[in-house]
Design brief:
alpha/beta; globular; 5-stranded parallel β-sheet; single chain; Rossmann fold; 6 helices; 51% helix
Length: 140
């Protein structure tokens, strides 16, 4: 069964190119253009991995990441952004992202980072990971 990717990117050209590349690589992709839709799709679709742009309309990628983590969602998150400063990378990782790639990027590097994130992920489905996170918080 193909792995599912939720791609949230407001730049239409980047979104379409990356969606096509991920699809050709064998992923099942849901692509959205803003943070509000990204959060809704993350709740609805329970993807295996998220690729989030930081600067998006509605809710930015950092807030999407924070909200998912606050809910106990442990789905791997790769931030994909034009923000290149060390402080920006730290902010993304501190918001709960698992990895951070700066634009412009090489699509092969994105593929490699997604494979690495998925290797480190428990083989349970995202709903079970989210439920386990909720159980962990309740026990604390």
């Amino acid at each position: 069964m193909p792995r599912t990717v939720l791609l949230a990117e407001d730049d239409r050209a980047i979104r379409h190119a990356l969606e096509r590349a991920l699809t050709l690589e064998g992923y099942r992709v849901t692509a959205v253009a803003d943070g509000v839709e990204a959060l809704a799709q993350a709740h609805r679709g329970r993807p295996d991995v998220l690729v989030l742009d930081v600067m998006m309309p509605g809710i930015d990628g950092l807030q999407v990441c924070r909200e998912l983590r606050a809910e106990g969602d442990a789905t791997p998150i790769l931030m994909l952004t034009a923000l290149v400063e060390t402080a920006d990378r730290i902010a993304g990782l501190d918001a709960g992202a698992d990895d951070y790639v700066v634009k412009p990027f090489d699509v092969e590097e994105v593929f490699a980072r997604l494979r690495a994130l998925l290797r480190r992920t428990d083989r349970t489905d995202p709903a079970e990971r989210a439920e386990a996170g909720a159980d962990d918080r309740a026990a604390a």
